[in-house]
Design a protein that fits this description.
The complex is a heterodimer. Chain A has helices spanning 16-30, 56-65, 118-136, 155-160, 167-182, 185-188, and strands spanning 3-8, 34-37, 47-48, 53-55, 71-78, 82-83, 92-94, 100-104. In chain A, strands 2-1-5-8-7 form a five-stranded mixed β-sheet, sandwiched between helices. Chain A has one domain (3-183): 3-Layer(aba) Sandwich (Collagenase (Catalytic Domain)), CATH 3.40.390.10. In chain A, strand 1 (3-8), helix 1 (16-30) and strand 2 (34-37) form a beta-alpha-beta unit. By secondary structure, chain A is of the alpha/beta class. Chain B is α/β, with parallel strands linked by helices. Chain B has three domains: 3-137, Response regulator (Rossmann fold, 3-Layer(aba) Sandwich); 145-315, 3-Layer(aba) Sandwich (Rossmann fold), CATH 3.40.50; 318-387, Orthogonal Bundle (Helicase, Ruva Protein, domain 3). Chain B is 47% helix and 15% strand. Chain B is built from 19 helices and 18 strands. In chain B, the strands form six sheets. A five-stranded parallel β-sheet of chain B has the order 2-1-3-4-5, with helices on both faces. A five-stranded parallel β-sheet of chain B has the order 9-12-15-8-16. In chain B, helix 3 links the parallel strand 3 (52-56) and strand 4 (79-84). In chain B, helix 13 (324-339) crosses helix 15 (362-376), helix 17 (406-420) packs across helix 18 (425-432) and helix 18 packs across helix 19. The two termini of chain B are 42 Å apart. Classes of the chains: A alpha/beta, B alpha/beta. Chains A and B meet through loops of A and helix 1 and helix 5 of B.
Chain lengths: 195, 459
């Protein structure tokens, strides 16, 4: 059975409640077993001292190399603020049709001026985790603003989304999952699906 | 257009930038490619179809502004976004002047990039939709090369389509420049004779004897210089269509000869006796009032009745001003292609001027004004100053700088009127209040060249 590993790679202590919610919702959404990976190991060399942010691309490379044994995919969650070189920040990144995804909680709590609503914060984290994992299965951004796969350049767009895939993306996910299941060669080459 | 069909080219010398930007946009479903420098970007541009280029400003060798300039020349419809890590007002201004869609400072805010791409895609989609709609509209408003949406012209098109299918002689009436020749060609193209020749004769351009041998041909030795037998236009047009332009200008003798041919369907070459049978569909045209000419006994009544089987009257442009915008679109598109210039439209002020003008030279004059506009315009949108039109235009002969003979003044004045009418002899003759044959003979006498293309435009 193909398993998704959830790995807390943040600097602060593990937010057990949050990970449990993500684990449950992700398992329900993708119909796959989801396990928590409790290693204390953390990505190296991802911090850009000038930007004081972590490179999500470097984290993805590190995750792909350190994927837990037995896990088909790895979803890392961090409290570090993430960036890609061309953008000021990203909520997360994933290898399209790949094995690794990362989501940051740093900006999902809000702008820091108001105390975050815990339920809304959890919903945002779950939505972005479903979104980034969806990319690893080959899903692209969805035109429906309510779908978890909609592009979310800001919190407003994240809040507009549901934590789940829309019917069209769900159907596409099932097609892609069937295609991937038929091609077990990918299992032997963990990097073959990366862009 | 689907997102997959929106092709985006990322040009940046930093691999990490190319990768991260391509990866980010790829997840929206766009088709991405990247190039590390200007020359490879231009190769990609020449090889494929691109909607958007995201191009770094500072690159070794060829910078982003040069890529922008060359990309816009290759594909004017492409949206180029210049990216830079160091924003200066000067470079931003330069980029926008060269036609950049936008200017972004690295790193971008995700929302900013997302909105900008959406804006470009929806704008390009609107432009495409608009082009398709305009083409569809124009198809409905066309009769071959004639374009009109006015009810009067639509009725003319319907009559012409019906007339084209019959073998009857057609008389096309209308002021100079209304499209009489194009109408004749369209009728021929729509007729069962369309695969046979369409032969045109401008009756006003030739003297009586020349026109006679031009129309009927001549036998060897018929006159000095007739070294061999030559077939005339009637024989050349056999099984096809003969277009006799400016029929109102032919001499009484030729009127009689022409009447005989129309009645007998046989021609006799000049200097010959043999009757050569011809199967020709005649389309005659004139800007003169033939009925009046008949009343004044300048035109044979029997010939008039022979020619006037089906009459198609083309209204002047001033009576169908609603056609001006659609004709402007049509001419900008065709002239833009012919002249290899980017002519997208006219400004609102220029259109107001075009709509207000009286157009004595009709559609041909409009075409000439737009052609001039395309030549002098610095931007794809033509401005009032590009058109060279004034609301109070009229002929003004320049005063000679030194005492001159009457002939010299006449020559100068005719030259200046011809210049004002863009070489349109009919229009010039009307201004000078002399007939076309007289004007042609004066043009020959003074060695004034007729402006080329006069016969090629709408007659």
């Amino acid at each position: 059975m193909k398993e998704i590993a959830i790995w807390w790679i943040g600097a602060s202590g593990v937010a057990v409640d949050l990970l449990e919610v993500v684990q449950r919702r992700v398992a329900g959404e993708f119909g796959l077993p989801v396990g928590a990976h409790l290693s204390a190991e953390r990505p190296e060399g991802s911090l850009d001292p000038r930007r004081r942010q972590h490179s999500s691309t470097k984290i993805l490379h590190w995750l792909a190399e350190h994927r837990p044994a037995g896990a088909d995919r790895v979803l890392a969650i961090t409290d570090a603020d993430l960036f890609i070189p061309i953008l000021t920040f990203v909520f997360g990144e994933a290898h399209l049709k790949g094995r690794a995804a990362v989501v940051s909680t740093a900006r999902l709590a809000g702008d820091g001026l108001m105390l975050p609503d815990p339920a809304r914060f959890r919903a945002r984290v779950v939505t972005e985790c479903v979104h980034e994992l969806g990319h690893t299965f080959g899903l692209l951004h969805c035109q429906s603003t309510r779908c978890a796969m909609a592009r979310s350049p800001g919190l407003r767009e994240v809040d507009a989304k549901n934590e789940t895939l829309c019917p069209a993306c769900r159907e596409r996910y099932l097609e892609l999952a069937t295609e991937n299941g038929e091609n077990d060669e990918q299992e032997k080459h963990p990097h073959s699906g990366r862009r | 257009m689907s997102k997959k069909n929106t092709h985006i080219l990322v040009v940046d010398d930093e691999e990490i930038v190319r990768e991260s930007l391509s990866g980010w946009l790829e997840k929206d479903g766009y088709t991405l490619a990247s190039a590390p420098d200007g020359p490879s970007a231009l190769k990609e541009l020449e090889a494929g179809t691109w909607s958007i280029i995201l191009c770094d400003l500072k690159m070794p060798g060829m910078d982003g502004l040069e890529v922008l300039d060359r990309a816009r020349k290759l594909h004017p419809e492409i949206a180029v976004v210049i990216m830079t890590a160091f924003a200066t007002v000067d470079t931003a201004v330069n980029a926008m002047k060269l036609g950049a869609f936008d200017y972004l400072v690295k790193p971008f805010d995700p929302e900013e990039l997302s909105l900008m791409i959406q804006k470009i895609v929806s704008q390009q989609s609107l432009v495409r939709e608009n082009t398709i709609l305009r083409k569809a509209l124009r198809r409905d408003y066309r009769f071959r090369d004639l374009v009109s949406k006015s009810p009067a012209m639509q009725a003319v098109f319907d009559l012409a389509r019906t007339a084209a299918r019959s073998p009857s002689t057609i008389l096309v009436l209308g002021e100079s420049g209304t499209g009489k020749e194009l109408m004749a060609r369209a009728i021929h193209a729509e007729s069962p004779r369309h695969e046979r020749p369409f032969v045109e004769v401008s009756c006003a351009a030739l003297t009586e004897t020349l026109l006679e041998s031009e129309l009927f041909g001549y036998e060897k030795g018929a006159f000095t210089g007739a070294a061999a037998r030559r077939e005339g236009k009637f024989e050349a047009a056999n099984e096809g269509t003969l277009f006799l332009d400016e029929i109102g200008d032919i001499s009484p003798k030729l009127q009689m000869d022409l009447l005989r041919v129309l009645e007998e369907r046989k021609v006799t070459r000049v200097g010959g006796t043999e009757l050569v049978p011809v199967d020709v569909r005649i389309i005659a045209a004139t800007n003169r009032d033939l009925k009046k000419a008949v009343q004044e006994e300048r035109f044979r009544q029997d010939l008039y009745y022979r020619l006037n089987v089906i009459t198609i009257t083309l209204p002047p442009l001033r009576d169908r001003r609603e056609d001006i915008p659609i004709l402007v679109d049509h001419f900008l598109e065709t002239l833009g292609v012919e002249m290899k210039r980017d002519a997208e439209g006219v400004s609102a002020e220029a259109m107001a001027l075009l709509l207000a003008h009286d157009w004595p030279g009709n559609v041909r004059e409009l075409r000439n004004v737009l052609e001039r506009g395309i030549v002098v315009a610095k931007e794809p949108i033509l401005q009032v100053s590009d058109l060279g039109l004034s609301l109070s235009s009229g002929p003004h002969a320049p005063a000679p700088a030194h005492p001159a003979s009457l002939a010299e003044i006449e020559k100068q004045y005719i030259a200046s009127v011809l210049q004002q009418t863009d070489g349109n002899v009919t229009h010039a003759a009307r201004i000078l209040d002399i007939d076309r044959v007289t004007l042609y003979s004066k043009i020959r006498k003074y060695g004034l060249r007729k402006v080329e293309g006069e016969a090629a435009g709408e007659s």
